[in-house]
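PT: before anyone asks, these are the final sequences, not the draft ones from last week. 358 residues across everything. Please model them as a single complex and drop the result in this thread when it's through.
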Amino acid sequence: MEVRHALRRGTHVALTIIFALFGLMLAMQFRSRPEVTGPLLQYQRTEELAALLKRTEEERDKLREEVATLREQLSDIRSVEDQVRVLQEELAKAMVLAGLTEVRGPGISLTVSDSTAPGQVGQDPNLFVVHDKDLLEIVNEVFAAGAEAVSINGQRIVATTEITCAGNTIMINGVRQAPPFKILAIGDPATLEGGLKMRGGLIDNLTFWKLEVKLTTEEEVVIPAYSGPLTFKYAKPVKKEAK
Amino acid sequence: MWYLLAGLLAGVLVGLNLPWKVPAVLARYMAVGILAGVDTSLGGLRASLEGEFDIVIFATGFFGNMLLSAGFVYVGDMLGIELYLAAVVALGVRMFNNMGRIRRLLLREAQKGAK
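LR: through. Structure below.
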């Protein structure tokens, strides 16, 4: 055959090497292929992450239960010791401040929910739902109006509380919340109401976007204690040195 | 021809048993490079059927086309356009051309043999 004619001795070696290299590339590419064009790679990843999230949340719930039981034990021990009654009073005060006790008092109840008005074509539906920023502004406003304790859907707002967007829900104290959001605040009801109902203020703004807002003053609201974790991993208290 | 297949087989066996994989980032470069390799092989087969095969031309073509098409992928990535498609299309067209020539050469050979 002509093919054989064309090939001299040295070319055999060269061709064999080249083809060996080629085969190597083919095989390696074939093996790496599923990584690149595997079926629905993105969805797989989402599912994996969702599973991971679920597992982590379960773990967290378990730990939260543990925190509750340990805290109970701790309060038992506390009540036993009589000598530290004074300290306990201090502690109780600090706990009220820190939001670790259930508190009651006059205040307001504000319920905010997504707009139920039918959306118009071309309107951004994002404008008609309650966002984390709205809740942040409300919390800020009631504290500015002198609120002493605030909770959203039973989550006490404390120093470490975050209010953040988590997909179509809002994360507060690491717990996901969905509308309607019920905000309770203890303070002077008239001042609180005034702060929120101010002309051009928060409620004006929210109703402009057709969000459902219901504000009532209450003679007594009960705000639950903060139930999240309390340990600090990084922050350490600075000890004041004796002068 | 057997040593070509032997080389290919040896390469495949080594490739299948190597412990590491091609990183996902480089997989596209590899794919286009393989396409260039297939194209050059077909070109080589055609040249040998025409009696014009030259190992230097073949070897430079093999590696040169591979680097060129990988370069296309790289430049395309830099520019944010899928420039490697140009390499894929060009190589695809060439493969069909070569296949057509090979087919014709083989048919002619077969007719000659039949006479």
